[in-house]
Amino acid sequence: MATTADIRNGLCIEHNNDIVKVIDFSKFQVGRGSGKVWTKLKSTTTGRVVEFTFNSGATINEVRVERRKFQYLYPEDDGYALMNQETFDQISIPKEMVENGHFLKEGDVVDVLYHAAKDSVLSVELPQTVVLQITYCEPGLRGDTATNTLKPATVETGAEVRVPLFCEEGDLIKIDTTTGAYIERVKK
C-alpha cells in the first residue's frame, strides 16, 4: 500500500474500481487543517480525465505496470498493429487507447503500459516529440512576419498542424505529440 506522499506524474493507481494514471498533481494545505493532494487522473479504460482531491496521508492502491517497447507497423480498421521489439509478437490496439495516434508513422517505437498482474494492456504512450515531413501547406507571404502568425500544414501521416509562415512543403518539422504543437524546423 502506498500513501498520497508517493503520488507522482505517470503513477497508475486503482480509483473507483478503475485503473487510472496520474497526469498532474499538487499538494497544498489550508489553514490549520490537514493537507490535501489535488490530482488529475486519466482512466486507462475510457480515456476520461477527472479531478480528485485526496487527504494527505490517505492510502492508495498502486498498480504495478511494465513498459514494453513496441514498433508501430500499420493502421487497421479499428486500431493499430504493433510488434513487440523483443519477442516479435504482434498485437492489435484499439484507436481509443492511443492518444494523438494521428502522429504515428510506420516504424515508430512506442511504449505500451501493461498491468503486470493481469498482463493486459493499459495504454500506449507516444514519444514526446516526432519528426515529420510537411506534404502540403500554402505558401507564406513575404514580409508578413510582424506577428507570430501560423498557417495550417498537413504532414506525412495526414495530421494537420499549425506552422510558422516560413515553413514550406518538404520541410521536416518537430512536433510535440501531447499538444500537437510545432516546436522547430529540423535540418535534413
Q: Summarize this, please?
A:
With 188 residues, this protein is mainly beta. The protein has strands at 2-3, 12-15, 18-29, 35-43, 49-55, 59-62, 65-75, 79-84, 90-94, 109-115, 120-125, 129-137, 150-155, 160-164, 172-176, 182-186. The protein folds into three domains: 2-62, SH3 type barrels; 65-125, OB fold (Dihydrolipoamide Acetyltransferase, E2P) (Beta Barrel); 129-186, Nucleic acid-binding proteins (OB fold (Dihydrolipoamide Acetyltransferase, E2P), Beta Barrel).
Give a structural overview:
The chain has 188 residues and is an all-beta fold. It has 3 domains: 61 residues, SH3 type barrels, CATH 2.30.30.30; 61 residues, Nucleic acid-binding proteins (OB fold (Dihydrolipoamide Acetyltransferase, E2P)), CATH 2.40.50.140; 58 residues, OB fold (Dihydrolipoamide Acetyltransferase, E2P) (Beta Barrel). 0% of the residues lie in helices and 55% in strands. The chain has no helices and 16 strands. The strands form 3 sheets. Strands 1-6-2-3-4-5 form a 6-stranded antiparallel beta sheet, with no helix packed on it. A 5-stranded antiparallel beta sheet has the order 9-8-7-10-11, with no helix packed on it. It is flat, with a radius of gyration of 20 Å. The termini are far apart. 21% of the residues are buried. The model has no long low-confidence stretch (mean pLDDT 88).
